[in-house]
Input
Amino acid sequence: MRNTRVFVGLLLLFLWLFPLVIALGEEDFLVVETVELPEGEGTAAGTDLPSGEAAAPPTDAALREAPDLTEACSMTFSTKKNASYRKRLIDGNNNTSWARGKKKEGWIVLRSEEPIASLYLCFDLQPETWEIQIPPGKIASGEIASGEEWVTVWTGPSPYVHVYIPLPSPSRTVRFWCPVTKTRTQIAELRAYGTGSFPAGAQNWLPPTENADILFLATHADDELIFFGGGIPTYAAERKNRVLVAYLANCGKRRTHELLNGLWSMGVRNYPVISPFEDTAQRTMTKEYQKMGGQNKVRNWVIALYRQYRPKVVVTHDARGEYGHVQHRVCAAVAQAAYDAAADPSVDPASAEAFGPWQVRKLYLHLAKENRITMDWDQPLSSLGGITGLEAAVRAFEYHVSQHPYSMNVTRTGSQYDNRIFGLVRTEVGPDEAGGDFLEHIPLSAE
Ligand SMILES: [Ca+2]
Output
């Protein structure tokens, strides 16, 4: 009997070591694609919980895509109404949500047969502070006994509304918890994943890129697709340039979910910048500026954007507002005004002091007549499985469900708002010669 145990022990040790020996001896034998996860922006709480994957040998569970456990999870809520809230959180619809008043602490407890390794939260409203907690003990088995305290493994808030949270070790029970706060909490979608590689259904955003090669400055969520076509996926995903997408108007929580889902689908991984200005459509520029808090306020926001993120090239709207939308015209106007002003430290000295002055090198307006270039968004992008830049934009627009009832969509090449045509209206590096490349004459960012 004893010999049998020794034999089984040796066999298990051999099986454990075998992949390591093979991997060391023949590097190409097992090609494992390493998925580098960006750092979450929240704060991992200081615990000495085992990291789970660090020392473990490779297993099938570690190589497969993390399974979506959400459907199989039970959920209980501080707010009761368990069944209806659970449905709202997992229905894939950003218009339905779980909400908590600000005067009481609130929580959602998830329980799963298969241990939960990560969570993905889509907030409509994020409170000032919140935590992800697990029961005390090692690999948490499930229940929390009376008198025991939950262990905090992650602390919000996140600067992003779509938040991916890898747990320090898998747990069958996980709790989202928030104390009494000044603001309400509203979560549109919540998903739980098991152990494995990064799940396709989640988003794990990196901070907005500084030292941007290109800033695409759109006005509203979806303008970046309709008017700039395949530009964003071509440069951000395929050419791996530093791309910042910014929006001059904040179109509300629903459209923010839509724009994030669309950008992520095009391979954008740096979170966009969204202004605090409301989405308005006044009849004149004067009224539009008034509605947005004054011309200087709008211009200074764009100046600070240039100074903080230091884009070499800025791409923005047609000066006539595409189809005449006055907020688009404001966007094109302030983008031009800020081109010189951002380089002058006497203008808006507060942001000059915070970030330093900045000279953008080239500014393109959609459809401008000066120094016209025609982009090619019909090249297949291997980074996106071979679809073209334009097809990636069309696909991203599918996420903008709230805008589908309206007449605008991502225009096909050659249509009225031809998203291939841009004019170079300001340049520090001379006119384009070859054309067809926003980054012509622009040295790329060093890492
Ligand atoms: Ca929902």
Notes: The radius of gyration is 25 Å.
